[in-house]
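Cross-check.
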Amino acid sequence: MRGEKTTLFFASRTGIIVTGALIGIIAALLQFLGNPPNMGICVACFERDIAGALGLHRAAVVQYLRPEIMGFVLGSMVAALLFGEFRSRSGSAPVVRFFLGVFAMIGALVFLGCPWRALLRLAAGDLNAVTGIAGLTVGIAIGVAFLKRGYSLGRSHKSGAVVGWVFPAFMVFLLILRIAAPKLGGGAVFFSEKGPGSMFAPLFISLAAGLLIGFLAQRTRFCTMGSIRDLIIMGDSHLISGVAALVVAAFLMNLVLGQFHPGLVGMPVAHSSHLWNFLGMVLAGLAFALAGGCPGRQLFLSGEGDGDASLFVLGMITGAAFSHNFSLAGSPDSMADGVLKVGGIGPAGVIAVFIGLIFCLFVGFRMREE
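Predicted model, tokenized:
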């Protein structure tokens, strides 16, 4: 009986609102405790940092094994095991999902943040997030149009138990690597000495925060992409009420902690090139919609044993490596001799965004159930 009541709570509107509010509060606290400004939680940024820590890219300012990511997967795994929802499955167009992950990351790093960070930037006063959120909404709306016309990557199928356990085991390996890294010597793991990668909350606080969020998000199915999709398709505001709670709670917590600084230019780890903020998130939103979940949701699904979601995450990590090795990512606004230099992306980033949009549109048109 108690288990049924718990399940009903998590499935209720109250449950999703409480989860969203806790994510907002925890994100603001993680920033206060050392995570980068306006980046208490950013799935895309944190996966990029992990890629750098593993030497997949050599952007020295964004290299760190973020415990929050490990916590998201392992917290979701614990919840799935406790409630009998851990099921090994795979086989739903895995290669397509991998490349959707690659282009989702490229789009997110053009904007400099995932959907969660877009919301948290807005809650901290960064008005550039408005164009990013608008682009995210447009990208998801395009994905919804494909869904209405029969788009599908096919059904996943039950697979051997090892498929479901591989990715959580990889997260455990990364966590051990993070704990042991100081003893391994130089060259094994790369940690930033300056820049966003050098800013982090204490290890076990970050891990505990990730575990709690992973557990709650798995139970409530928290998903930023899904919230917009459900609102467009069915007018269902259940999930988006949790997203709204995240923004409100983060905003209030930022006020309390003195972290609310409204503005449009010179915002932390952000640029005011509005066209590319918009188009980068159009690409990311479309890729998330075609893959069936935002980057956070993909991590939570990976913790449930979903091998296809795990491939999407690995695609995002690969996309982070491409973004920095080939100068595709956005550069933040900066000050030089008292003069503001607006950031944005270079020619390679422009080409990558359009290639990504072409790829996603091709997938949307071609992957239809007969």
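The longest strand covers residues 334-336. The first helix runs from residue 2 to 11. Passed to J.P. for a second look.
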